[in-house]
Amino acid sequence: MMLALVLQLCLLVSTHAFNAANLFNVGRLENRACKTSSSSVFATNKWDMLIDEDEDLEFNGPPVTRDMKYNVFNIKRQRENFESIKAVAGADLTNDVYARDAEKDTFWFIGKVARVSDIPLEKAMARQWPMIEEHSARLRPVDLYPKFGSLQLWTAPGDSEIDVAYCKPEIVFVQMFRDVDDSSEVRNMEVGFAGELYESDEEGFRTKRTNDGKAVKQEIQIPSDNQRQPTNAELDEMMKELAQAESDGGQ
Q: Which residues lie closer than 8 Å to 134 by C-beta, 6 or more apart?
C-alpha cells in the first residue's frame, strides 16, 4: 500500500509539475478542517509562543484601534468570534485568508475570517486588517515580515484549502484592501479571525497564483481507483522516501 501511494504521488508530481509541499499538506489540511474550532486555551498558548518568539520584530505603521492591536486578549476574542459565527452559519460566512509579497507569486495561507450576515467580506477584512497583517508577518518572518505594511491580503471560499492544493480552477482568490468605507463602524463582535498556527513539523501551506488570483498550475486529477487520502504518518514516510530517491538520483 505504501509503495502504491508513493508511486501515485510521484506520478502526480511529475505529470503536473506541482509543488510537492502542497500534496504533502493535503492530509494535514483535512485534519485541520476538522479541528478549526480547537480549544481557545490551546490556541492561546500557541499565540503566546508566536508573540514571545518574535519580540525582536518591529511593527510600525498607521495607528491601530485598541481592539485590533496584536495582543493575546484581542487575538483570543476574535478567534472566539470566529468560532461562534461559524458554529451558527457554517462555512458560508467564512473565508480563507492568504498573504502575499506583491513581488512574488507565492500566496501563504495565514488563517480564516468570519462575519455576520449583514457585514460584507471587504469590511470584515478591513476592520481586522492590522491584526491579520501582523499575524502574517509573525507567522512567516522570513517570507512576509520584510514587506510588512505593504502585504497583499487575498481571500478564498471558506474551508477550500484542499481544492486550492489541487488547483481547482473554480477557486479564484479575491484581493482585499486595507481602506474600505465605513469599515470602522463594524463592531468587533460582528467579525472574527482565526489565525493559522503551525505544528512543530509544518512548513506552512502555500500556493502559486497569478495576479488575478487564479491557479498557476494545471488542476491535479485524483485517480478514481484510490479515493483514500494518505495519513499523516504515510505522508511523512512518503516525504522521506522521495527525499532519499532525490538524493540517490543526484549522486
A: 59, 70, 148
| C-alpha to C-alpha distance for 98 and 118, rounded to whole angstroms | 23
- Which residues lie across from 115 on neighbouring strands? 191
> What are 14's three cell numbers?
511529475
Cell of 57: 520584530
What is the rounded CA–CA span in Å between residue 211 and residue 85? 31
The pLDDT tens digits for 9-64 are 544 444 443 444 555 555 555 555 444 444 443 455 555 556 655 567 888 888 99
70: Cβ contacts below 8 Å, ≥ 6 apart: 51, 59, 130, 131, 134, 135, 138
Nearest to 120 by CA among 170, 191, 70, 169: 191
Instruction: Decide if 152 contacts 102 (C-beta within 8 A).
Output: yes
What are residue 209's DSSP bridge partners? 215
pTM of the predicted model as reported, rounded to 2 decimal places: 0.76
pLDDT digits (tens, 9 = 90+) for 200-223: 778 899 999 999 999 999 998 876
What number is the average pLDDT over the span 191-204? Answer: 90
3-state secondary structure the chain: CHHHHHHHHHHHHHHHCCCHHHHHHHHHHHHHHCCCCCCHHHHHHHHHHHHHHCCCCCCCCCCCCHHHCCCHHHHHHHHHHHHHHHHHHHHHHEEEEEEECCCCCEEEEEEEEEECCCCCHHHHHHHCHHHHHHHHHHHCCCCCHHHCCCCEEEEEECCCHHHHHCCCCCCCCEECCCCCCCHHHCCHHHEEEEECCCCCCCCCCEEEECCCCCECCCCCCCCCCCCCCCCHHHHHHHHHHHHHHHHHHHC
